[in-house]
Design goal:
homodimer; 219 residues; alpha/beta; Arc Repressor Mutant, subunit A; Rossmann fold; 9 strands; 44% helix; 17% strand; DNA-binding; Rex_DNA-bd_C_dom (chains A, B); repressor (chains A, B); NAD (chains A, B)
DNA sequence: GCTTGTGAACACATTCACAGCC
DNA sequence: GGCTGTGAATGTGTTCACAAGC
């Protein structure tokens, strides 16, 4: 009666599911009711067969010869990703990037709710951003305890990111998303993911210079 | 006499090289002169053997029994990534996120220079951000032509991102980094990369809910 | 006939283990 | 002895091709 592995979805698939979810939502808003793997694949920039394989991980519910029901598929993906129930996040660091994140509509619509904004600068404490009032980072532990936040987002300068990470972990936050340009270490059981905004740019630039090896034209 | 593939570095390696570059720079700033693969690996959160394999792609110059020379390695990586010469970028969309990007020090220190900031909102045009004056997006083509920008960064709302992308591509920009939450399409020869800030958060949340399948404690 | 779902083949990436060198 | 560099083994992810089903 024990399912072998009820939900073991490859990480690469999870990332793409989030993208499918976004596109399906816009399709649903546009009044579309069904979609084929080919259409959805081209709208998300992936291979159709890969898309079907991704969907097969969630015990897919497409109809052969027809396609997928947009609403049903969207709900199923949302359920698997846990995007239907709201998750409480605290955000530390409200400089330019942090403020952008606090205001970013994409989070709220995908089940992430900021329940605490924290900053160390006195002039930022008390400001209202994205419907919340910025609190003093000294109260981090109290805010986490009061809000039961399960996710922490770090958008501080690099030199304080590690100590913020330590405090979040100690306060019981088990998932941390780091935007500061440092590699963080955290105790076992705490999941840290790092988003480096300039890495993508650097990869892009590298591919660009690859493409045209400057003066190596075939003439 | 034709080299088979002079420089074909796996994309995953390129992304990590950018991280090594950042850490090596901070090591160099701290006065460190040599580093072993183990040290650098733990500072960047990767496997030591993988790190050595990454470095081997650039015809590595470590010394057995000793390690790598920090400065030499940093320069070699910078050269391979093309991070030594400055690359001109235009940024379109100066809302919260765009402003954060324009101000982000991480770009400048890695060879990316914003040479144009463009926005459609009249109240933003003329503002100074990160040392530049915001220009009207109507002048996009002129700005690209005047600055010879090779990279475009899109941080606009989703609904105008595609048309900005089209105009950038038509103006001759061959590398585009998209922060808007839409999948963009571009003509062949134009490289588009998409950074979705909430995808990482969604993966993190998924892993978190995986970890503790709520009420399935082994007691 | 059209589209899904999936095993099998392939390509890519990571890790291991050790030979080569200082 | 210590650390790099790398082939070999493993694991992961992607693509193909086609059978199954509407």
């Amino acid at each position: 009666m024990i399912q072998p592995r009820p939900r073991s979805i490859p990480e690469a698939t999870v990332a793409r599911l989030a993208v499918y979810l976004r596109v399906l939502t816009s399709f649903a808003d546009g009044g579309r009711t069904t979609v084929s793997s080919g259409d959805l694949a081209s709208a998300t920039g992936v291979n159709p067969a890969g898309l079907r394989k991704d969907l097969s991980h969630l015990g897919s519910c497409g109809v052969r010869g027809v396609g997928y029901d947009v609403r049903a598929l969207r709900e199923r993906i949302a359920r698997v990703l846990g995007a239907e129930r709201s998750r409480a996040c605290v955000l530390v660091g409200l400089g330019n990037l942090g403020s952008a994140l606090a205001d970013y509509a994409g989070f709220g619509s995908r089940g992430f709710e900021f329940v605490g904004l924290l900053d160390a600068a006195p002039e930022r404490v008390g400001q209202r951003i994205g419907g919340l009032t910025v609190q003093d980072v000294a109260d981090l532990e109290a805010v986490v305890a009061a809000t039961q936040a399960s996710i922490g987002v770090i958008a501080t300068p690099a030199d304080v990111a590690q100590q913020v990470c330590d405090r979040l972990a100690a306060a019981g936050v088990r998932s941390i998303l780091n935007f500061a340009p440092v590699t963080l270490s955290a105790p076992a059981g705490v999941d840290v993911r790092h988003v480096d905004l300039s890495v993508e740019l650097q990869v892009l630039a590298f591919l660009g210079q690859q493409r045209v090896p400057v003066g190596e034209a075939s003439a």
